[in-house]
Amino acid sequence: MSSLEVKDLHVTINGSHILQGVNFFVPENKVTALLGRNGVGKSTTLKAIMGLNPGTGSIKFGGTEIVAMPTHKIVQMGLGYVPEDREIFSSLTVKENLALAARDDEPNYDLVYSLFPELLTRTSQRAGTLSGGQQQMVAISRALLNKNQILVIDEPTKGLAPKLVTEVANALAHVADHSTMLIVEQNLALVKAIAQKIIVMDQGIVVFEGGPENLRDESFVKSMLGVSGGHK
Amino acid sequence: MLRWKYSRPLLVAVTLIFALLPFIGNNPVTNPGLQQTMAVAFLYGALALTYDLLFGFTGLLSFGHALYFASGIYVTAILINTYNWNFYLAVLAAIIFTSILAALTGAASLRTTGITFAMVTLAFGQAGHVIITRDFGGLTHGDNGLPINADRIPSFFIGVVNTKFLYLLALGILVFIYLAAWWITESSAGRVFAALRDNEQRVSVLGLNPNRFKLLSFVLSAALAAFIGAGMLVVSGGGSPRFASSETTIALLLMVILGGPVTRWGAVLGGILYSVLGTRLNSLSQGSTFDSLPTFIKGPLSEPAFTLGMIFILIVMFAPGGISGAYYRARFKYLNKGK
Amino acid sequence: MSTFLLILITGVGLGALYFLVASGLSLIYGLMGVLNFAHGSFLTIGAFTGLWVSTKVFPNPTTWTFIAAMIAGGIAAGLFALVMEQLVINRLYNRHIDQALVTVGVALVVAAVLGGWFGNDLRLLPTPLWFMKAVTIGDAIIPIDRFIYIGVAAILLTAMLSILKFTRIGLIIRAGVENRSMVSALGINVRLAFSTVFFIGGFAAGVGGVLISVFSYGVSPGMAGSWLIYGFIVVVVGGMGSLTGSAIAAMLIGITNQFANYYVTGLGDFVVVFILAAVLLTKPSGLLGKVSH
Predict the structure, then answer these.
(1) Domain edges within chain B
(2) Is A16 part of the contact surface with chain B (CB cutoff 8 Å)?
(3) Confidence band for B222, pLDDT divided at 50, 70 and 90
């Protein structure tokens, strides 16, 4: 069971009450997109799920309560995390970055190198010298190496050139076919392409849970997300 | 309101009582020996408070605070002894010199934060200690210490009979420092210091330059420390390199932790207690209380640093607010009883 | 020329000793954010253990007994570091200031206990006779002990770099120095890395303690004071979390210290503080620093 159920999640950081009772459900084997304007608490929510932010309330993964679990145990349960801003280790080589992430007996390097053939030629290169797009490939690959039950991904196409956005989007679409995914993404075209469910947040709570077809409605998009259209 | 409404009048009353003690009847404080001990304790209480301004209030963990204290002592002493300056002018000059020194070292140290800052201040403090012990130009007399030229000090401080005036001087300095600290922390600059401790980002967002305020806090606490140093010079009769040592700064840290940071009276209490405890532990260890114990236990127990270190570890691990923190926690519980 | 060589090699020897102290400090701070004031205690414990081995266990000093003393000193210090980490540091997880404070307390207690058990007098650590001999290079006469310090430090540096580069725990440590929370986010329990780093740091300091006893002609409970401070300076100059940075900085500081002291006694300490200030004003993260705590 790889569904995620979040109930009444509160997160306070440095005195700011950022998440004020977040409720939502991430169904298994589907891609759920978490949307919202900047600053509403999307990344904070993902971090709370991963145990990187202290939260109160309930977060159940496959029925198990994980809200107070230490991060590494949460990850070992099968949650693969791709953070905003990549956070790859710049002093380690590509190979080392991937090796660090490998938990299973047989990590799936085939998948990684078939999705991102560029990485194969750069295994000994220091990750700090890679381009932004290549670093993002490493960050995503880390989550793909292991047989994760759910992928938790934070803005994978942020700051990438259009060509790379397409490449990453294709890789995600390929993976989305057979996994559960919770993805925060501002690129609505990508969301429309791969998501089966959308959740919209505003000011620390969830204001909408529904299907991606709603994104075709311009007034919906404007009021919920503060942007006109989604052509990126 | 966590503060007991009679706490301020109580403080004033306690201070008055302490001021009158040397003159009343036959209580222990009429003894010059105890007066001397208390005078030193008052000064350390004041010094601990200046350190609390830096560490407790502004959140700057400095390991070189002793440098400015020692600077106050030695600059005053040197100006009086070697250059025959007038006592009061020498003290003033020492405070000014120390402030400039703090501005320079502070500016360099504040290029770093947190833990690195601590290390850097430690290094500067050590440099000061080295300057004093190496006795450059024969000015500081190194390890021998620098006794003050008694002729140049106002005569009502000289002589055992006048120890009670040293006692009053120290108490007066403590009161002055306490009022100064109170004024600083309640002022708008003081609010910024507290904000810096909690969340530096918020301070910059308000358009205030965090570094400028950190430097202000640094220089202010150093200047006050120098002032206390001049007092210590008179009370103890001379300078000594140990005033500049890292041991002294660590003692200050212990004092603030013992009494509890940020509460002002906590630091003063911690300073006085530590100073008195230190003297008591020292005499205990030189005495024969522990003679019947096996060396295995007796050895460490007769080293004051053992007891102090253990108390320190226990407080940090289990009672981080020190004495004043425990008091306020208890008071909070008492006020909320039955709610 | 001969004096130049003597001062240079003594400086490098001194740098080797600084490196042994600084390496642990750098890794511990780099990975865990802990400012370890008890590091001097590791040094002293190592020295006392070495003393015990060289006097009580093997009454006649030979090269082998000295090697045994170094290893024993390293292990004793490493184990103490490990215990300290488990009992005390671990309980204050993420409370960095409190962790630093607690190490101050531990340093006080250890010095007091050692002083209480053994007294505060200086005791000589017996060494094999050939340590005190000198070697002639060109027309310079150089005491052999310098080369021993350099040799041991070089061996330990190589060993530590190898562990970092070729083992999984080393990989975890290198990544953790850069970004500890991300390592957890990869499902790795960084606790093991913490204990490893404390043990390694303690071991190096312990070995350093034995060698410092030879250099300073004695073991005493208070011996670590100024070495710890120099260790801190080396770490700040070299960059937190970087072993190579510490090595380079240690050499730089050792050599300049010796040369400065040659021209004016006592100038060495100043010059070092001056270097510290200069590095801080130009590159606050240190020469090879990479930590962003």
Answers:
(1) 30-335
(2) no
(3) very high
